[in-house]
Amino acid sequence: MLIDTHTHFDSPKFAQTRADDWARAQSGGVVAQVVASVAPFNFNTVRDLAHVHAGTTYALGIHPMFVDPLGDDALDALRAALVAHIDDPKLVAIGEIGLDGFIKHSDMAKQIRFYRAQLQLAREFGLPVILHVRHAQDTVIKYLRQYSINQGIAHAFNGSFSQANAYIKQGFKLGFGGMLTFDKANQIRRLARELPIEALVLETDAPDMPPSWAYQQLNYSHYLPRIAQALCELRGLTMPELAGQMRLNSVAALPKLQLTLDELSR
Ligand SMILES: [Zn+2]
Q: For 172, which DSSP code?
């Protein structure tokens, strides 16, 4: 029983195959997924999907790579969506939010302003956050501390051991996915092997970040069991051991996931 803690299940790339893809993931043992939104244009889409496909939950937030063209009305739209849906058991986090220092020509001051505004919303609404971070780990962590945000996931973690430990100290879990399956991904494989097992969660980021066997192709949640198997091999764990621990970690990061897991077991 596995949980895919980060997908973009709403992607138009899945338009023709979405229900079949999820059925295939479920039959492979993936019981739940978290669909991250990226901007107000897909808030309703991710929520609707969560209420159609069993085991599907969602996060609402503005992704740093989508910030540049947006006005402050986007933050107002996020607040309005949170007010309207905070009691929705399928809404498990604010996300994905963060900072991306890798994309060129982005207004970093504006990214930081949107990130801070969304941390404030996370505090106000009592939700964990799902973070997207590239070339900005220390700044992201600095504001987590400043806003006393102590629950969530640093998705697709790709930083140093000391940055990993800073997230862990802050109460965060670190998301690992298809990158684990590349022999050349030495740093990510070392992190996944050596960090405390309690700090890890599994994700695909489907349709992005495909594993080695789907290089430059679409990624799917039904690849998660094979990714989990790669982590089992790195850690010397059996699949039931790993799955049990990942479930605990996922619920610790995103407590409202438990409501969906309970519903599935009824
Ligand atoms: Zn994402």
A: E
